[in-house]
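Changelog-adjacent note: as of this version, every example in the card shows the full chain rather than a window. The one below runs 164 residues end to end.
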Amino acid sequence: MPTRKYVFKNRSYYHIYDKTLDHNRIFLDECVSVFTLMPNHFHLLVQQKTENGIVNSMTKIMDSITRYYNIRNRRKGPLFLPHFNAVPILSKQQLLYVSKYIHLNPLVAGMVKTPSELLKYKYSTLQDYSLHQSILTWIDMNKILKHFNRSKEKYWQYLIGNRE
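Full-length structure tokens:
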């Protein structure tokens, strides 16, 4: 599995979290379909397969990021608020909307200016969904792409619509 660099922002400072994300250790049996890392927050679309699986996984993620950041910056204390938001997905329409919301977040937030720049945004699974070769082998794209006849081009058209 390739190593990827993830950037997190705390106030006005960018820091690099340069580790191989060990999916099996962090997510146990949960299935990650979509994620986007933003400067001050992140979005995950995860299917829970075990009771309290997402809560346990999120606790591990938040603790790992905080520990890394605090050691690197010689500080103590929490980085995040003590909770996260989780919303159950109850329909196909909601699933597709959430994946679209997560993938378009850098464009909507103004971090990238055009859909073509969005394709180059490194801190998202969109590259896996748009390139012919997948970078992150632990991402389960089938949960989303099955609704587009497994076509990455059709999914891309769904995302951008009339934006190009």
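Structural remarks: The beta strands are 4-10, 13-19, 31-37, 42-47.
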